[in-house]
Amino acid sequence: MLVKLSPSLRNLQLPLRLTLKGGPTLDLGPHPRVTLEIQDLSLLEELTEPSLDKLGEAYISRRMEIHGPIMDVIEVADMLSKGLLGDDPGPAPQRQAHDKHTDAAAVSYHYDLSNEFYGLWLDPEMVYSCAYFHSVNDSLAQAQQQKLDHLCRKLRLQPGERLLDVGCGWGGLARHAARHYGVEVYGITLSQAQLELARQKNAEAGLDQHIQLELQDYRDLTGQEQFDKVVSVGMFEHVGHANLDAYFKVLHDQVKPGGLVMNHGITSKHTDGRQVGRGAGDFIGRYVFPHGELPHLAMAVSSMSEQGLEVVDVESLRLHYARTLECWSDNLERQLERARTLIDDKALRIWRIYLAGCAYGFRRNWMNIHQILAVKPHADGSHDLPWTRADLYR
């Protein structure tokens, strides 16, 4: 059987080999690094318009198999897609409805997959957010400890203060803040699996008297000005553009006058918050983060300002996150056999594509991630922040 491909596909000159299962082989360029083994012949026609979500779906539905290092697979898939479709910036964003039930279901879908699965590729503290590398030679565990400390130093945490941790995950930041800075932490999450393991880890560390974690939506936080500092890491991506003002109002209302609020989250490259183009954002929304929306930095700063928070420091960690994701992807690739015993085949295929694809996307500036530090000024407009950043680096 001959492999019939469009002239435009044949002319791309990619390091890619196409094979039909048990049939012929065609190299699209010299020295192929990646092989796509076509299981479904109808996929050949679809390769004339190979959007990234279409390629990803073909892999997770087993219409094709991939062979080669996963980072090479992502790069060649992008080259194939861009070569035939151009550099599509993606459609204008459609605002999504976010209510408590929808957000809880989305968080459960993503985070309640398997604590043991996440443990295969995260650091020992299971910090599922961007690490902070002092050099490319830092280990993942070292870089995550540096990130936790970087957050605590930016918040200028002091012994005896009360810290609100919105989206506390497996509790890594709460434990670091309680252990090293002597604060009392109240953390909330929508993931039952995360909550149970975080509480267990807190007890094992002897910190459960200083950390209270609850299954709670940020919209259900009660009271006013209860906390000296507020931190939110990897949370506002789930909030939705339409709810940003309400979200930052909650953070504003929970912190005392003069207190600091840190928001650490992924941000859109495009000012209107549109998804990554050529279907990459569609794939993530459909299979990884349902109902996720990435605000642009300007949108986040505007919303925080409108709610009475004064932004005092912004730091981009884009290349740090690219490196973090590369570490996560490498860890998972080394543990594929074990991972197959913890989650089903479709989920594992999704996560292989997701981690490597996001590493590739952050490396190439498809999206960004920012730490945004804000203060709630006193009534007279004053605050107590140092005049310089020098204290962060002592």
CATH class identity of the largest domain? Alpha Beta
- The largest beta-sheet arranges its strands as 7-6-5-8-9-11-10
Q: How would you characterize the largest beta sheet? A: 7 strands, mixed
Percentage of β-strand residues: 15-25%
- Please report the total strand number as a whole number: 11
Uncertain segments are none
Range of helix content: 40-55%
Strand/helix succession: HEEEHHEHHHHEHEHEEHEHHEHHHE
Full CATH superfamily name of the largest domain? Vaccinia Virus protein VP39
What is the CATH topology of the largest domain?
Answer: Rossmann fold
How many helix segments? 15
Q: What's the assembly state of these chains?
A: single chain
Q: Give the count of structural domains.
A: 2
> In the CATH hierarchy, what is the architecture of the largest domain at level 2?
3-Layer(aba) Sandwich
Let me know the average pLDDT.
92
Give the CA-CA distance, first to last residue.
Answer: 68 Å
Shape: elongated
Q: Helices and strands: which structural class?
A: alpha/beta
Rounded Rg: 22 Å
Question: How would you portray this structure in words?
Answer:
This protein has two domains: 7-85, no CATH class; 100-393, Rossmann fold (3-Layer(aba) Sandwich), CATH 3.40.50. 40% of the residues lie in helices and 18% in strands. It has 15 helices and eleven strands. The strands form two sheets. A seven-stranded mixed beta sheet has the order 7-6-5-8-9-11-10. Strands 2-1-3-4 form a four-stranded mixed beta sheet. Helix 3 packs parallel to helix 11 (280-287) and helix 7 crosses helix 8. The longest helix is centred in the last third of the chain and has 19 residues, at 345-363. The chain is elongated.
